[in-house]
Amino acid sequence: MQFFPEFFPISEVFPIASASLSTWIDGEVLALGGISFCLLSLFGYVVHTTMDRKEEKGTESEVPFFQSVTKEEVSEVQKATASEKSLLEEGVPTISQDTPLFVFKEDIPKETKVPFQSFYFPVRGKTYEAVKSFLDSIRVGEEIWEVLLHDPKGDLQTVASKTGSISVFPSERKRAGEPKEGAIVWKLEWDSFSLGEVRQTSSTVSEFSLDEISFRLDKLVEGLVLAGESQDGETGWSSYPVFSQHLEREKFEGEETKILVFMEFESDGDLVSDFRSLGNWWKSRFGENSPIYRIRKNRLATFFHAEDWIKFQNSLSGLMEFLGPDKTRLNIGASVRVRKDDSEWEPRAKKALHSSKEEGPNRLVCL
């Protein structure tokens, strides 16, 4: 091989190739060659090491998860699986020691106390009649009889008492205390529900028939249950089921002219208080001839004979003044039964009530 100085300017350090071979292989050439070989070897080693590391990383990322588990972990998993299978085969449920106990609290039924169950009866309407009838049936004597019923909280209250021939219904009832020493107590219960108690206290030895008092107590309990199912709890008036029965009976049995009336109230104050005031006003004018039925929260119903209907219309202005026209509004819908088996009697009364509401407050419509 020959170098051409025209194209490759060679430094004066290197002699021209035209010299003999012995002039190339000297100490300097061997030193430079050794250094170059070492550098090339070092570079190759670095490159080779780098490539090996990249290949190892690639193979590790491609290894599936289950293949990377150690032998110790595999043995533990196999042991746990084997133990679970054996427990399932034996059919004995167990709780692992590593599992916290609070996880299973929802699965363990807790002992719950049965709440005290009682009925609350407002002493009005049929409840008042049942209690009064019981006290009236007791013969006059020196004993003190007390009828106790539950209040809304479940506490016993003395709602009526009788001493001699005098029966007392207190307007303000307080929580009753424990029975006096020597008192006889009868529990009033209906199908395991507590209704109240009857207490009898006497300073002397009283004689009475157990059969007779048991019969009267049964009658009192039946009267209380019937009152609870048939009367409104806030006013003591008859409820919607009783109204429906009365309406069906009037449809098929009544023949004389009768008016069905629906009254719907709106009040800015306490509507129950207004209803109680209305009850006193109503009783002073119509007595028991036209009982009131509370068929909805703000809707009442009643039946009028012709003369009471006219009397009611003439008393409307006084009724509104009594209730307070600035806070109470009233709409009335009525319908006259024109014949027996009049199936449209109730629908007409409802239609009249809706027409009254469309016209505005304090309106009466009769169809």
Helicity level? 40-55%
What structural class results from the helix and strand content?
alpha+beta
CATH domain topology of the largest domain: Alpha-Beta Plaits
* Count of alpha/pi helices: 9
- Tell me the number of strands: 10
Distance N terminus to C terminus? Answer: 135 Å
CATH class group of the largest domain: Alpha Beta
Number of structurally distinct domains: 3
The CATH architecture category of the largest domain equals 2-Layer Sandwich
Major β-sheet, in short? 5 strands, antiparallel
Strand content: 15-25%
**Low-confidence spans: pLDDT under 50, at least 5 residues?**
1-22, 60-75, 85-121
Write a concise keyword list for the protein shown above.
10 strands, 367 residues, disordered N terminus, 5-stranded antiparallel beta sheet, Alpha-Beta Plaits, alpha+beta, 3 domains
Provide a descriptive summary of the structure in words.
There is one protein chain. The protein has 367 residues and is of the alpha+beta class. It has helices at 27-62, 71-90, 125-137, 210-230, 240-253, 271-286, 306-314, 316-323, 345-359; strands at residues 144-150, 156-163, 166-168, 184-190, 193-201, 258-267, 293-294, 299-305, 328-336, 363-366. It contains nine helices and ten strands. It is elongated, with a radius of gyration of 51 Å.
